[in-house]
């Protein structure tokens, strides 16, 4: 059994559970990266033998994170201690069909319904953002990213300034 792991909490490796491997065989893993920093870092991804805890392989990944290119700023008013949903309009500015991935700088506090949307040319759709406020954490800002699935490039980045009231 092989288990993948990372030296950074910003890298989520799937499968997260141990997986059976044939001697000399190949395994596929997917790494999701969600940075919460700006700058250069080195991150290690490792594969270990679950039974013996011996290191099988290790990869070093160089990451350079730049500040998001904010395209719109919103003020969002939220009631304290109650989960709330707002609608965010995502537009396809192209004349051809495109798929977009919507992600968040703090997925533990904002759930995105339909995080991948496919839109015909020049069409728009409302995507629900659910702010999870029952945990008592009050973030001052959340970034929402709209990424082109085809080329993984940022299309939009929205800054949501969060204002809390009773």
Automatic annotation (TrEMBL):
Ranges where the NPHP4 Ig-like domain occurs: 3-66, 72-164
Family annotation (InterPro entries): Ig_NPHP4_3rd, Ig_NPHP4_4th, NPHP4
GO biological process, one term: negative regulation of canonical Wnt signaling pathway
Superkingdom in the source lineage: Eukaryota
Coiled coil region boundaries: none
A GO cellular component annotation in the UniProt record: ciliary base
Xref: Pfam families: Ig_NPH4_3rd, Ig_NPHP4_4th
Classification via PANTHER family: NEPHROCYSTIN-4 (PTHR31043)
Protein name as it appears in the record: Major sperm protein
Classification lineage: Eukaryota, Metazoa, Ecdysozoa, Nematoda, Chromadorea
């Amino acid at each position: 059994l092989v288990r993948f792991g990372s030296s950074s909490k910003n890298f989520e490796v799937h499968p997260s559970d141990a997986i059976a491997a044939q001697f000399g065989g190949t395994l596929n893993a997917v790494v999701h990266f969600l940075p919460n920093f700006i700058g250069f870092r080195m991150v290690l991804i490792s594969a270990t033998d679950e039974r013996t805890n011996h290191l099988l392989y290790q990869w070093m990944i160089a990451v350079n994170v730049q500040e998001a290119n904010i395209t719109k700023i919103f003020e969002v008013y939220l009631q304290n201690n109650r989960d709330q949903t707002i609608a965010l309009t995502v537009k396809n500015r192209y004349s051809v069909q495109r798929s977009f991935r919507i992600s968040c700088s703090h997925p533990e506090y904002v759930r995105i319904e339909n995080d991948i949307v496919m839109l015909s040319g020049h069409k728009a759709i409302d995507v629900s953002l659910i702010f999870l406020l029952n945990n008592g954490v009050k973030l001052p800002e959340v970034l929402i990213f709209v990424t082109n699935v085809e080329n993984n490039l940022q299309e939009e980045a929205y800054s949501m300034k969060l204002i809390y009231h009773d």
